[in-house]
Design brief:
Elements lengths: L2 H30 L3 H27 L19 H28 L3 H31 L3 H12 L10
Length: 168
């Protein structure tokens, strides 16, 4: 595996692990607010981000590379309401999309067709991630801080389950 690409994969693994850590902090916020459905939604996000990180991690080893694990930044821990949380989630997912695009560019620059193929899955996943977050955020904005609507949405989000993705 090209060393420049290997380093870029290691950096993306770090960002995916940070994403899991960020969503874990958001889950804690919702637990403190007694919004268990929202907390469940975030926990599923934690699991998804960990699976994304492990997909990249395993791929590096499959290609004969080495993984360098880096420090994970401390996430923001204080939020004022659910809308603010989901606005931050959407902002973060757009950032992750830009990172995946940058990683794909490195793979293109070194002409690594296998990596480009793998990263196509991540690009599609980011489209889905942004759409899912936008949907929840749109529902929250429609609710206009109505406690009854918030509780209904909380119940809906409680039904979300993690399904391990087939990456690649």
């Amino acid at each position: 595996m090209d060393k420049k690409l290997e380093q870029a994969f290691c950096e993306q693994i770090n960002k995916e692990l940070y994403s899991a850590y960020l969503y874990l902090a958001m889950q804690a916020y919702f637990k403190e607010e007694n919004l268990e459905g929202f907390a469940n939604w975030m926990y599923v996000q934690v699991q998804e981000e960990l699976s994304h990180a492990m997909g990249l991690y395993n791929y590096v080893f499959e290609r004969g590379g080495s993984v360098e694990l880096m420090s994970i930044d401390k996430p923001e821990l204080k939020f004022s309401n659910a809308i603010e949380v989901f606005e931050k989630v959407l902002e973060h997912e757009k950032y992750v999309t830009s990172l995946i695009n940058d990683l794909t560019q490195v793979a293109e620059d070194v002409k690594d067709r296998a990596a480009i193929s793998l990263l196509g899955w991540y690009i599609k996943e980011q489209v889905e991630e942004e759409a899912n977050v936008s949907n929840v955020l749109g529902n929250l904005k429609l609710a206009q801080n109505d406690p009854r609507a918030l509780l209904l949405l909380d119940r809906e989000l409680a039904a979300r389950t993690f399904v391990a993705p087939v990456i690649g």
